[in-house]
Amino acid sequence: MNESPSLANLLKEERRFTPPAELAARANVTATAYEQAENDRLGFWATQARRLTWGTEPTETLDWSNPPFAKWFADGKLNVAYNCVDRHVEAGLGDRVAIHFEGEPGDTRTITYADLQREVSQAANALTELGVTAGDRVAIYLPMIPETIVAMLACARIGAPHSVVFGGFSADALATRIEDADARVVITADGGFRKGNPSALKPAVDEALTRPGTERVRHVLVVRRTGQPDVEWHEERDLWWHEVVDRQPEQHTPQDFDAEHPLFILYTSGTTGKPKGILHTTAGYLTQVAYTHHAVFDLKPESDVFWCTADVGWVTGHSYIVYGPLANGATEVLYEGTPDSPHKGRWWEIVEKYGVTLLYTAPTAIRACMKWGDEIPAKFDLTSLRILGSVGEPINPEAWVWYRHHIGGDRTPVVDTWWQTETGGIMISPLPGVTNAKPGSAQVPLPGISATVVDDEGQAVPDGGGGYLVLTDPWPAMLRTIWGDDERFRSTYWSRFEGSYFAGDGAKKDEDGDVWLLGRVDDVMLVSGHNISTTEVESALVAHPKVAEAAVVGATDPETTQAICAFVILRGAVTEAEGLTEELRTHVAKQLGPIAKPKRILPVAELPKTRSGKIMRRLLRDVAENRALGDVSTLTDTSVMDLIQAKLPGAD
Ligand code: 6R9
């Protein structure tokens, strides 16, 4: 990308939404936080660290003497599970609901903080009995059930870093992750429920453990969730969770760990090479996830009901289902299944049932709901909602406005939160009681976070310019390294721009200095000498009333270097009438200018996505360039690609 011109500024979005006066008046965080952090960034984070209960208070904030290896609060000690559970019980909040669990088949459990304390203590005792000690890695391969949270907190309690692997990943993906982390115990379940059926998990573990490199796994702890018959059993190795955990004492004394003790490893697939084990540590991580959850969602723990719909196997689940909300003593919903099972209103039914006030989801889910039709959420009482969040991809302005209107009843601020597995917590986001929101923009770095947009030479671009998003100062929840590969950590994130963290995302700054994320740099297209972001063309397509979702890629083209090729999902009742693709091409040209007019538009039924809902443009590029498909192992549903390829001959 070295000599290519900066991203063109194509999209014009003029809509603005001010914070509701009442919310602004009672907001946890006001505009002064920016000033405080600006004046004394480290002092600001030292203050935030006081949200936690420490065994030994830290006297130093940041040690950056050996960049890019940061140490935060290095001489402090604490226990993460104590902070997420026990201290709330000690404060007299044992009866507060921590988790409203809603299983896909409709079974429910209500777990208070006192219940959670007992369960986490028992699980910690069980792991200790199995020989797990501080520093040992534990792989967790579970559905979205309370035991997943309990298992993670139990690991944290005894200082055993966990590595959660998506329940949807294959035996191969699981084996690679077990091997790389050198895990000693795997926690799994017989299965989970998905789209109305039990779906087995244990067979993938059995298969993974036949692969070389996984021999050091001593035990597999199996939660009984579906009750499927004929679970294969290895007598020496396998143990039922209920047999081992339920008989344990309900007390467990948490031990304090160093602030920089490893908390978890989470693998990100990346586009090439073997998955990167992103390492997060104890106190800096917990400080930032607790602070951001408090600030961005304006959490009032005594009255709010928070619901993050992410899978626990994604970083969003780690930070905003487990560690952030529980450190803050929140009440939250945990839902096992998919949004459309058994019907397309399931999520809204859950919001109504539990009186959810704060909802955090991904653009892909919002666009799916747009596709299913406005009448579905309209059937439910969603008036409890007061703040809506978005994460995972740029949210197209049209989807943002739909979310605010159809889900938020035009009352709720929408917070578009930019961050990564690597950043650990939210980095760029509006504050719901402060920021005048712009649909489609994550807008401003949070207090205490330093981010900017630079050009190819690493110079900050002026307002109105485009380039690459970088983080210019270390932050508490930053990854500490790639597990076992310091050199890859350095070269991946810290070598492109001297002294700054390169996030890998294209971005622009508008005239007010607000940041707009424009997708992964690898996805940026080069068309007749202009860099064009896939995000902007996708947003223009989604702004057309007939389009629910769009994925845009640049396909090699002899005349223009790359040609814009768009895959679109049409809204509910719209059919593929003649002239539709032409209408859409013209619409994009009108919105963004002729340079952005797609050469080809292909209506499809589904798009290839990862488990966290990100569109895998790389596979669409393979299709558009008539190549064999690359690695599909992190795709949710591989049949999607067959459907798309089957449509190709009739394209254009
Ligand atoms: C939390 C998470 C990170 C990548 C990131 C960027 C994209 C996430 C976004 C967003 C625009 C947002 N991304 N949030 N892009 N606006 N609000 O998603 O972590 O799975 O590691 O992905 O996701 O491209 O670099 P992760």
TrEMBL record:
<dbReference type="GO" id="GO:0046872">
    <property type="term" value="F:metal ion binding"/>
</dbReference>
<keyword id="KW-0460">Magnesium</keyword>
<keyword id="KW-0436">Ligase</keyword>
<dbReference type="InterPro" id="IPR045851">
    <property type="entry name" value="AMP-bd_C_sf"/>
</dbReference>
<feature type="binding site">
    <location>
        <position position="316"/>
    </location>
    <ligand>
        <name>CoA</name>
    </ligand>
</feature>
<dbReference type="GO" id="GO:0005829">
    <property type="term" value="C:cytosol"/>
</dbReference>
<feature type="domain" description="Acetyl-coenzyme A synthetase N-terminal">
    <location>
        <begin position="32"/>
        <end position="84"/>
    </location>
</feature>
<feature type="binding site">
    <location>
        <position position="528"/>
    </location>
    <ligand>
        <name>CoA</name>
    </ligand>
</feature>
<feature type="binding site">
    <location>
        <position position="547"/>
    </location>
    <ligand>
        <name>Mg(2+)</name>
    </ligand>
</feature>
<feature type="domain" description="AMP-dependent synthetase/ligase">
    <location>
        <begin position="92"/>
        <end position="475"/>
    </location>
</feature>
<dbReference type="GO" id="GO:0016208">
    <property type="term" value="F:AMP binding"/>
</dbReference>
<dbReference type="Pfam" id="PF16177">
    <property type="entry name" value="ACAS_N"/>
</dbReference>
<dbReference type="InterPro" id="IPR032387">
    <property type="entry name" value="ACAS_N"/>
</dbReference>
<dbReference type="InterPro" id="IPR011904">
    <property type="entry name" value="Ac_CoA_lig"/>
</dbReference>
<dbReference type="Pfam" id="PF00501">
    <property type="entry name" value="AMP-binding"/>
</dbReference>
<dbReference type="Pfam" id="PF13193">
    <property type="entry name" value="AMP-binding_C"/>
</dbReference>
<dbReference type="InterPro" id="IPR042099">
    <property type="entry name" value="ANL_N_sf"/>
</dbReference>
<feature type="domain" description="AMP-binding enzyme C-terminal">
    <location>
        <begin position="536"/>
        <end position="614"/>
    </location>
</feature>
<feature type="binding site">
    <location>
        <begin position="392"/>
        <end position="394"/>
    </location>
    <ligand>
        <name>ATP</name>
    </ligand>
</feature>
<dbReference type="GO" id="GO:0019427">
    <property type="term" value="P:acetyl-CoA biosynthetic process from acetate"/>
</dbReference>
<dbReference type="InterPro" id="IPR000873">
    <property type="entry name" value="AMP-dep_synth/lig_dom"/>
</dbReference>
<feature type="binding site">
    <location>
        <position position="542"/>
    </location>
    <ligand>
        <name>Mg(2+)</name>
    </ligand>
</feature>
<feature type="binding site">
    <location>
        <begin position="416"/>
        <end position="421"/>
    </location>
    <ligand>
        <name>ATP</name>
    </ligand>
</feature>
<dbReference type="InterPro" id="IPR020845">
    <property type="entry name" value="AMP-binding_CS"/>
</dbReference>
<dbReference type="GO" id="GO:0005524">
    <property type="term" value="F:ATP binding"/>
</dbReference>
<keyword id="KW-0007">Acetylation</keyword>
<keyword id="KW-0479">Metal-binding</keyword>
<dbReference type="GO" id="GO:0003987">
    <property type="term" value="F:acetate-CoA ligase activity"/>
</dbReference>
<feature type="binding site">
    <location>
        <position position="505"/>
    </location>
    <ligand>
        <name>ATP</name>
    </ligand>
</feature>
<feature type="modified residue" description="N6-acetyllysine">
    <location>
        <position position="614"/>
    </location>
</feature>
<protein>
    <recommendedName>
        <fullName>Acetyl-coenzyme A synthetase</fullName>
        <ecNumber>6.2.1.1</ecNumber>
    </recommendedName>
</protein>
<feature type="binding site">
    <location>
        <begin position="194"/>
        <end position="197"/>
    </location>
    <ligand>
        <name>CoA</name>
    </ligand>
</feature>
<dbReference type="InterPro" id="IPR025110">
    <property type="entry name" value="AMP-bd_C"/>
</dbReference>
<feature type="binding site">
    <location>
        <position position="544"/>
    </location>
    <ligand>
        <name>Mg(2+)</name>
    </ligand>
</feature>
<comment type="function">
    <text>Catalyzes the conversion of acetate into acetyl-CoA (AcCoA), an essential intermediate at the junction of anabolic and catabolic pathways. AcsA undergoes a two-step reaction. In the first half reaction, AcsA combines acetate with ATP to form acetyl-adenylate (AcAMP) intermediate. In the second half reaction, it can then transfer the acetyl group from AcAMP to the sulfhydryl group of CoA, forming the product AcCoA.</text>
</comment>
<keyword id="KW-0547">Nucleotide-binding</keyword>
<comment type="similarity">
    <text>Belongs to the ATP-dependent AMP-binding enzyme family.</text>
</comment>
<feature type="binding site">
    <location>
        <position position="520"/>
    </location>
    <ligand>
        <name>ATP</name>
    </ligand>
</feature>
<keyword id="KW-0067">ATP-binding</keyword>
